[in-house]
Amino acid sequence: MEEIASPEFRLLGGILVSLVHGPEACGPALDYLQPEHFADRGNRIIFEAVLTLHSEGVTVDLVSIADYLHRRSAIHDAGGYVRLCDLWTWACPPSEIPELVGSALCAGHQEISQN
What we know:
The chain has six helices and no strands. The chain has 115 residues and is an all-alpha fold. Helix 3 packs across helix 4 (62-71). The longest helix is centred in the C-terminal third of the chain and has 18 residues, at 97-114.
């Protein structure tokens, strides 16, 4: 478990919690974010799973993400099952998702422009 949840980790948790209510509940996150906007490798792997499952029309929740990552032998690289559960614990409220998406997009552009 992360000692203090980063904004990126809280955003990813918020997206997962919101998706339980449908894709529209997480606001702009699925429309604008890409895996490379996440600095943490585990977060990128989890978000890639979210995007893939969503594009395949699969209900995105902890069980489907864990299964997807397990079948691809990527659960360890994503941080394990406990980390997936921690996303729910540290999730930001849906009202914070747009602001955190904006921050992630800005951070991603800075990283891209520095390369």
